[in-house]
Amino acid sequence: MINEKVIIAGFGGQGVMLMGQILSYCATEKDVNTLWFPSYGPETRGGTANCSVTISEEYVNSPVISTPDSIIIMNKPSLAKFQPKLKQGGLCFVNSSLVIDEAYRDDVTIYQVPANDLALQLGNLKVANMVMLGAYLAITKIFTFDDVISVLEHKFTGTKAKLIDINRQALEVGKNAVIQ
Fold first, then answer.
1. Start and end of every Pyruvate/ketoisovalerate oxidoreductase catalytic domain (predicted)?
2. Domains of the chain by range and CATH?
């Protein structure tokens, strides 16, 4: 049974909202209940941003996630804010390119993914979010990469269609960063 509550957080402009939207769109495509709830800081680009995504076979009755099953953290301030809320035994995916030498809880599983560094190796820093999403999907197996690519094909049309291939590569790189 699917029942996943995830918080995705980082600076504005890091693709945090897109990751959440993709997960929600994938759930919708699979005919699973979902709720995506964005939260922006005072500045859009460069300020803090986070979103909550609930994916469940049961009815989703609230956008508020007080104890997430997983968190995807793109920057240091987001780790400080959301790591304490993560449920015991939860999954914490951290962009280790920007979050360095931090204290992590010992009752959760930490996946350190150098998302910015890996995205730069692909030639486009903007796909760091897809690197993180690839890592998350590789571990949780909540959706397949094909599910994500299908959503991207609907979302990225016209001139943005050329971005699908690099996003596919970024998903794979993210998977390879956490699967040995």
1. 12-174
2. 3-178 (3.40.920.10)
